[in-house]
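Working notes for the structural subgroup meeting. M.R. asked for a predicted model of this chain before we commit to crystallization trials. I am recording the input and output together here so anyone reviewing the notebook later can reproduce the run.

Input as submitted:
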Amino acid sequence: MTTSPLKTKPAAPLTFELPVELMDKIENYRKVMGTATASEVIRIAITRFDFAKCKPVRLPHRQISVRLTSELRATLKRQARLKDVSVGELLRLAIEGFETKAVKPGRTPKGPKK
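Returned structure, recorded in token form:
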């Protein structure tokens, strides 16, 4: 009797985030294929995937360190909790949505008008 390559060693947990759309796709495959768990769908997907042809898109990242007031830091942390995202994600969104306006050297730009 031959052992399946999917069950040769004990499984170990691997935790990672997926978009909800992919989670839904996994659940649909689970139902269609009649598998008991999402883990089984993932194991099958990995064994069938052609890693040789895979060309992942990876944007280069650089680390930056900035000084923030305790008030700004607290605002970021509070908003991250409220929005259920990381502080880094909020920072990226703030920078991407930033519109530059002329600011005199040595002056701190004012926040949005309330």
